[in-house]
TrEMBL record:
Keywords: Membrane, Signal-anchor, Transmembrane, Transmembrane helix. This is Trichome birefringence-like N-terminal domain-containing protein. It comes from Carnegiea gigantea. One of its GO terms (molecular function) is O-acetyltransferase activity. InterPro entries: TBL (IPR029962), TBL_C (IPR026057), TBL_N (IPR025846). Pfam families: PC-Esterase, PMR5N. It is found in: Membrane. One of its GO terms (cellular component) is membrane. Belongs to the PC-esterase family. TBL subfamily. It is a single-pass membrane protein. Residues 95-148 form the Trichome birefringence-like N-terminal domain. Residues 189-474 form the Trichome birefringence-like C-terminal domain.
Amino acid sequence: MVTKARRLSHLIFILIGFIIFIAILYGQDFSCTFCDHYSHHLQSLLLSPPILQPLSESVLDEEATNHVKDEKASNSEEKRREKVAAFAVGRAAEGCDIFAGKWVRDEERKPMYEERECPYIQPQLTCQEHGRPDRDYQLWRWQPHACDLPKCVPITCLLIEALTLAFLQLIYASKLENFRNHKKVETCRFNATLMLEALRGKRMLYVGDSLNRGQFVSMICLLHRLVPEDAKSMESSNDSLSVFRFKNYNASVEFYWAPFLLESNADNAVVHRISDRIVRQASINKHGKFWKGADILVFNTYLWWMTGHKMKILNGSFQDDVQDIEQLETEDAYRLAMKSMVKWVQRNMDLNKTRVFFTSMSPTHAQSIEWGGEPGGNCYNETSPIEDPEYWGSDTSKSIMKVIGEELSKSKVPISFLNITQLSSHRKDAHTQIYKKQWSPLTPEQLADPKSYADCVHWCLPGLQDTWNELLFAKLFYP
């Protein structure tokens, strides 16, 4: 008994020493190791008499029988979860909808990066550089109603978890399942170290319009500081594809311009200001060939469909001498794109190894009268969110939202829905407004009326789209 106790003490000291080494190695907050729930549960496991003292055969047989029963009961559920759990390190709390919540002003909140520290932000999104006088839009934190977004530090805790499980295996194997079922490894709101480690040897791809490009740039800004200058690069292999490489991770975060997902006459990533928009039916493979091999896919499409008119759908090819074009209601045309996207995912993605996300509509704020402002105004000079929890602007189509829900629910493969519409609808303050690079000289009339050229579509960085990536982070690792 004495020899066994000494051996156990040695193992405990080895475990603690290794934990300290890993915490220092990854430069993370060591206090994570002692998150209350985690440390208390470890203490009960490590110090409880049943672990340290041998149990009778009858007790062992009873526990084994119960374990088999529990395993059979949860087997089908575990199999279902395994199909959607690529990249997962835990599970979301029961009943937790991270997209239902409110914006909380946090004076101590700092952006996760500074605008000047991220040279990859396009000049259309650098609000501070272009003279925005306030930073209030950076002080708002998203707080879900029924739960919290992940906090603490994940990478160290995950290593601790693996070591703890191995340690418990040496002591008493039958307690492991109980530990797995009750553990709670918490994370910070966005842990760049964990994200980069998860991307090691992999490819993350954002596909869609300029709003998705903004989220792509946000992700780069959140990650790039962990990598030396000579180990990262931004490049474009064609007009549509932009690739940011983390060379020492053999990883990439990419953006592919496809505002309709299907082939269209607006597919040029630089020259695409076309009012007479035409979308080719059943043409997703034209772009999809560039998406193959992605491990994480994030789709979006919305703004370009909102023309105010019926959509022109091309049957055939853009090269046909006589084009067969039919006009469909926006919802019907949009449904064609959603169906094509779902089918493409089903045929080309291995959902046991990869994850697919679809981001809902990004709202605009073109009519301030809708939130109680002056008639004729828009997002210009707005510095705080809309307080009405039920606010839904006329620029955000509920009928399109319905189409998205219907088509994703029919999917035979899991596509995670990033429902950023309602939470973003409150952020009239977070747009670039007039604080961006203007590609054409402003007229005297525009200069006299700044709201006439305010951009109430795109978002300042750092800003709201970093929250979108926080939510993506939560759904990726805690589905």
